[in-house]
């Protein structure tokens, strides 16, 4: 399916959060016309496994009454008037299944705001609801809208009960005043009000384009179909969201930590490449700036970028990227209870030689605790990460069959 280019490049990233099967991808599709899950296994199983993505243009009808005057179309579906373009946005669709929590955290690091999707048929919160809300707060996502989905499948009384469940759970948190919008993603009901809420409650943050270009890599691809002639092979493609600066076609780019240069994986070497093409908002552009999702074709061997092999790396202007860390010192805080499980499970103290999973920006790495005190831990990493002092880290521990979020911290 061909995707119509947007009038402008996307300028804000909006994540989707919530328990598996709450309808996150359906809501994104109802707005953008694009099913964000593209991986073959996702299509087969009907759930998001990798980070999904889709862009949309938001338009306002000057004739219809607010908040019913927002749409993703150039023609108002209510009165057939021409609409006014407001801004372009990118959706980052995160998996809701507990076993994919570390994948969700990779996407959350790039959110400017989020839509938290609730299934109104079930008592709130479901296990991954609480886990995703906790993760959003850790990552500093405070611009959040609640989409009370599947409203077409419940009675009025149940919808009101669910509303009260949400309000009660959020009371006393930074999200207690988050707007709650009833929607049916399947039938596109309430999408106009959801778009109004996006415009009202998730503003475009200020960006510093004077700083050197920097982009955490969220996806990477080999876009060449099997059997492509050698003289027509395109270089590897990386995708992500530019967090500072801008990039132009023809400029050099550094990717760190890069690729391992020994069999043990104990040493990595950065990659230097050139930008061949840039896609943003469904069209080719000569320059991309901070905000929204961007795809960059490079001169890298596509074997290096296929199947998301570059995810977790950081791309940027050569010589300006943060240091590569093979060990981390983290000032940390643990939750009182493990989030995302039905039973109340107290979080035990960390211990030396304990394995952990850490998320920093789009990077996911594991490591072993080599030293622990009440407030700090030192962790030897199995895969290095690129990060600044003070960057946020989420901490997960193996509990049962999966990794569970147990705390957070910052790099010292």
Q: What CATH architecture label of the largest domain applies?
A: 3-Layer(aba) Sandwich
Extended strand count: 22
Number of helices: 7
Q: Can you tell me the overall shape?
A: globular
CATH topology assignment of the largest domain: Rossmann fold
**Spans of 5+ residues with little confidence (pLDDT < 50)?**
38-49, 96-100
Mean pLDDT: 88
How many domains? 3
Q: CATH homologous superfamily name of the largest domain?
A: P-loop containing nucleotide triphosphate hydrolases
Estimate percent helicity: 10-25%
Largest sheet: 7 strands, mixed
**Can you write the helix and strand succession as a string?**
EHHEEEHEHEHEHEEEEEEEEHEEEEEEE
Quick synopsis:
By secondary structure, the protein is α+β, with helices and mostly antiparallel strands. It has helices spanning 24-32, 40-45, 101-108, 127-138, 156-170, 191-201, 302-305; strands at 13-17, 52-60, 70-71, 84-93, 113-119, 144-149, 180-182, 214-221, 237-240, 246-248, 252-260, 268-280, 283-285, 287-289, 294-298, 314-316, 324-334, 355-360, 363-372, 376-386, 392-399, 402-411. The strands form 4 sheets. A 7-stranded mixed beta sheet has the order 3-2-4-1-5-6-7. A 6-stranded antiparallel β-barrel has the order 8-9-15-12-11-16. Strands 17-20-19-18-21-22 form a 6-stranded antiparallel β-barrel.
Indicate the topology:
Layout lengths: L12 E5 L6 H9 L7 H6 L6 E9 L9 E2 L12 E10 L7 H8 L4 E7 L7 H12 L5 E6 L6 H15 L9 E3 L8 H11 L12 E8 L15 E4 L5 E3 L3 E9 L7 E13 L2 E3 L1 E3 L4 E5 L3 H4 L8 E3 L7 E11 L20 E6 L2 E10 L3 E11 L5 E8 L2 E10 L1
Parallel strand pairs: 1-4, 1-5, 5-6, 6-7
Antiparallel strand pairs: 2-3, 2-4, 8-9, 8-16, 9-15, 10-14, 11-12, 11-16, 12-13, 12-15, 17-20, 17-22, 18-19, 18-21, 19-20, 21-22
